[in-house]
Specification:
The protein has 10 helices and 5 strands. It is an alpha/beta fold. Helix 3 packs parallel to helix 4 (95-104). The protein starts with 9 loop residues before the first strand and ends in a 9-residue tail after the last helix.
Length: 227
């Protein structure tokens, strides 16, 4: 009887300017299944250099760091090394920290009171094409868009030539559902959901779920939550 191969561990770089915090995160990650820490950086410049040299799957990125902060480091990593995803891990959960990080290309956002299980879920979510964004953060994203300008009227036809099913998937992404949750809602396989997402991203020019939420709102496909 052959044993099933264990899932490949995610190769992670940790970036945090506080030595005690950085070493603590590295120690915690070393105890978690499915995570392999391959490097640690004390600022954004070091993080970018480590990504260039090590090609990790994910960077756990602090935001407030000297020389090059987490937002700028995220922007450079996503532009220069698109195979590496970024999950923000920071003390700050305010809008002034959250939205610039998402706009720079971060696919996940956690605060440092997150537990080990939550970090593992976020890392593997971004690697599977999901976003490590809680429904609460998706809600704040919509509320921010609502404050910026009035929502347009819903279009009479699906934008960008999207099919009815691709529209359904887009709206469920905007609700904050993961790929498995969308699959259960639509009674299809996760692989089928990924195909629909790839198609709608290609048609609309979107790169990630945060952009998809903004797109759905900008096109009048969804409304910000009341209250």
């Amino acid at each position: 009887m052959t044993q099933e191969a264990e899932p490949k561990s995610a190769r992670v770089v940790v970036a945090d300017d506080q030595t005690v915090v950085r070493e603590g995160i590295v120690m915690l990650l070393g105890l978690l299944p499915g995570i392999e820490v391959v490097g640690a950086a004390g600022d954004g410049e070091e993080a970018v250099a480590l990504v260039a040299g090590l090609a990790p799957d994910v960077v756990l990125m602090d935001l407030r760091m000297p020389r090059c902060d987490g937002v700028e480091a995220t922007r450079r990593i996503r532009a220069e090394h698109p195979g590496t995803q970024v999950v923000v891990l920071t003390t700050f959960a305010d809008d002034e920290s959250l939205f610039p990080a998402l706009e720079a290309g971060a696919r996940g956002y956690l605060t440092k009171d997150a537990g080990g299980d939550e970090i593992v879920r976020a890392v593997h979510s971004v690697l599977s094409g999901d976003a490590g964004l809680s429904p609460g953060i998706q809600r704040r994203l919509l509320e921010r868009l609502a404050q910026a300008e009035p929502a347009p009227a819903p279009p009479s036809e699906p934008p960008a030539g999207l099919t009815a099913r691709e529209m359904e998937v887009l709206l469920l992404i905007a609700e904050g559902l993961s790929n498995p949750e969308i699959a259960r809602r639509l009674h299809v396989s996760t692989a089928t959901v990924k195909t629909h997402i790839n198609n709608l991203f290609t048609k609309t020019g979107l790169k990630d779920r945060a952009q998809a939420v903004r797109y759905a709102y900008a096109k009048g496909l969804v409304r910000p939550p009341a209250g």
